[in-house]
Specification:
Elements (H helix, E strand, L loop, with lengths): L1 H9 L1 H18 L3 H28 L6 H13 L3 H22 L7 H5 L4 E6 L2 E6 L8 E4 L9 E5 L2 E4 L1 H4 L5 E3 L4 E2 L4 E4 L2 E5 L7 H14 L9 H22 L2 H10 L3 H20 L2 E3 L2 H8 L3 E4 L1 H5 E12 L5 H12 L5 H12 L8 E6 L3 E6 L2 E6 L1 H6 L15 E7 L2 E12 L3 H10 L4 E5 L4 H10 L4 E3 L4 H9 L6 E5 L5 H6 L2 E5 L5 H6 L2 E3 L5 H35 L6 H19 L12
Parallel strand pairs: 11-18, 11-20, 18-19, 20-21, 21-22
Antiparallel strand pairs: 1-2, 1-3, 3-9, 4-7, 4-9, 5-6, 5-8, 10-22, 12-17, 13-14, 14-15, 15-16, 16-17
């Protein structure tokens, strides 16, 4: 009962038309045909008035809709006494609008989750005391304490301490960044290890996290609506229909002949084909874990020419993996990796996880280290079989005066963990963000589906970004980009519509401003999911290709349904131009055309997505 009452509330016009028809039928059968005529005629005219008003508004804005045919059919039917024909047109019009409205009701909600994750409390140091205050009460120059695991409340500069910061929500950079005394840090970053004493350099309002929120809101307000698929065919169909009806009336001199033609030209197939195919396509996509928020988004996706991908967590897993192990001073690579794993096995740091995973994969035996000591922001120190072992950053090796190999040079383009045994460098372990196994095949599928340009737009290091792009045959790479840079890059893309695929908070503004935003929602930020037009629920980028394929197949069927409807309407116009059939029969046959169109459009719910190619 609740679902029924909700349906009746949300689709009032359609419900009203059906109820009015039942009341009119009751009056007709009970012998009150005159009352039935006036009642049904009034209902039909009430529906025609908003159609005419909407048509006038469309003309003022430069749009030419197909509602003029429907309004003409309703008014002419009432004038000529064919009130049941008028009601049938009303029912199909309101039914089509209800279906279209249903598709749009899946629209995105406000980005409340982005605000939920904003910093709320800051620890302000006042003398020897630390006081918790609301983040918006922090002023420039305040001295703050940020503890491990906490989010940086405002943009600041480090006064004391060092720590690794996760800036992935701001820049897309997957690798933790070491920040030491004198370094500037941005609000929204998360302190992984080590406590920091900082001085606020901006208020919460002017800090990076708030800027991202404002970008999302601004981009959202500037998102232009998309024109209905049916409107592309409306002008030629409308002109032709009026021309045929007018010619028949002029030749015969009988206005009923005009109605006989115009009633079968009522554009219900044009109005129904696209929304039904859209809802069917959206249903098909949802079965594959792809949530499409609006029908217009699916239409834009079907016509997309460019797709831009974020790198971290999108083309890659967003997790570190060991790229290489180098050994020095007579140590083997296995010894280097096993020693590092012995120290890192009890740590939950992403670097530690990558080292331990690599050691286990290589089937290395590593013992539990003793006297493990964490050196904040730099690494670990411990004993293994009475040997002193260090694992961490280059600065840790330098602090302990570790003996380095002759001519040793660091690779500044890769994240690395240095391993020292008995105060001499035993080896270097380098890391990379692993490319998703499905990324290459996904990009191949997209190219087959007609996507002409594929870009990488990321906040990551240029060298790393280009290396990953080369693996995936991506030739256009935009790296080291902040959210505002990503936004401008997408705005400047010439081959449109353009799709952006991402998963982080930093992707939220560009997901909103792109023609179509697709968010990987399985492990991505809620803000990204709310900003996007499509959300992929599985942690599987191949669903992007599937989404494109579903969109293309959906609109192939939608166009096919429109042309079937137009073709059958022209056949009926030719038949009814002879004057041998009544307008009521025309309205009934138009309903038959509608049923044919509906069943064809419903095919978008089924079929293999590879048919899109």
């Amino acid at each position: 009962m609740n679902k029924l009452s909700k349906f009746l509330r949300e689709y009032r016009l359609f419900t009203f038309a059906i109820i009015a028809g039942l009341i009119g039928l009751g009056l007709q059968l009970s012998g009150h045909s005159t009352i039935a005529k006036w009642f049904i005629s009034t209902v039909a005219l009430l529906q025609a008035i908003p159609l005419l008003w909407g048509m006038i508004q469309d003309l003022r804005t430069g749009h030419y809709g197909i509602d003029i045919l429907a309004a003409t059919a309703i008014i002419t039917s009432v004038i000529l006494g064919e009130y049941w024909a008028a009601l049938l047109v009303v029912i199909m019009l309101t039914g089509g609008e209800s279906l279209e409205d249903y598709a749009e009701r899946r629209a995105k909600t406000e980005l409340t989750e982005l605000l939920k994750h904003a910093p709320v409390i800051a620890h302000v140091k006042k003398g020897n005391k630390t006081v918790d205050v609301k983040v918006h009460a922090v002023t420039v120059g305040d001295k703050l304490l940020i503890k491990p695991g906490e989010m940086v409340p405002v943009d600041a500069i480090i006064l004391d301490g060092s720590a690794s910061l996760d800036e992935s929500s701001l820049t897309g950079e997957s690798l933790p960044q070491l920040k030491e005394k004198g370094a500037n840090i941005l609000s929204g970053a998360i302190v992984i290890d080590g406590a920091l004493t900082v001085r606020a350099t901006a208020t919460a309002k002017d800090s990076q996290f708030e800027q991202i929120i404002r970008l999302v809101r601004s981009a959202s307000s500037s998102h232009a609506p998309f024109v209905r698929l049916a409107e592309r065919y409306s002008i030629p169909f409308t002109i032709t229909s009026f021309a045929i009806a007018g010619a028949v009336w002029a030749i015969s001199g009988d206005p009923i002949r005009f109605l006989q033609v115009i009633i079968v030209a009522t554009p219900c197939p044009l109005l129904l084909a696209a929304p039904i195919a859209l809802v069917s396509g959206m249903s098909r996509a949802s079965k594959h874990g792809i949530i499409v928020k609006t029908g217009s988004a699916l239409e834009r996706l079907a016509e997309a020419e460019t797709i831009a991908f974020d790198k971290t967590g999108t083309l890659t897993y967003g997790k570190l993996s060991v790229a290489s192990v180098k050994a020095f001073h007579g140590h083997s690579k296995d010894t280097v990796l096993a020693s590092a794993a012995s120290l890192e096995q009890n740590s939950n740091h992403v670097v530690a996880s990558a080292i331990v995973t690599a050691a286990i994969t290589a089937k290395l035996k590593f013992t539990k280290a003793k006297h493990v000591k964490e050196i904040s922001g730099r690494g670990l120190e411990a004993k293994i079989s009475n040997k002193s072992v260090l694992v961490g950053r280059l600065s840790l090796m330098q602090d302990h005066n570790v003996d380095m190999p002759t001519g040793f040079q660091t690779d500044t383009d890769q994240t690395a963990a240095y391993v020292a045994i008995n105060n001499e460098l035993a080896g270097v372990i380098t890391f990379s963000d692993e490319v998703r196994v499905e990324s290459a095949t996904t990009l191949m599928s997209l190219r087959k589906f007609g996507i002409k340009h594929i870009l990488m737009v990321t906040g990551d290091n240029k060298t790393i970004a280009k290396k990953i792009a080369k693996k995936l045959s991506i030739t256009e790479v935009y790296a080291e980009m902040l959210p505002v840079d990503k936004l401008r890059t997408i705005e400047n893309v010439k081959n449109r519509p353009v799709v952006f695929v991402g998963d982080g908070i930093n992707d939220a503004p560009v997901l909103t401003v792109s023609d179509i935003g697709i968010a990987l929602g399985a492990h991505g930020s809620t803000a990204a999911s709310e900003s996007a037009d499509l959300v992929i629920l599985q942690d599987d980028i191949s669903r992007v290709a599937e989404a494109v394929a579903v969109a293309k197949r959906t609109f192939k069927i939608a166009r096919q349904s429109i042309f079937i409807g137009i073709g059958l309407s022209f056949i009926l116009m030719a038949a009814f131009a002879t004057g041998k059939f009544s307008p009521l029969l025309g309205a009934v046959l138009q309903e038959v055309v509608d049923v044919v169109v509906i069943f064809n459009a419903l095919r978008a719910r089924n079929g293999s997505y590879t048919e899109a190619n």
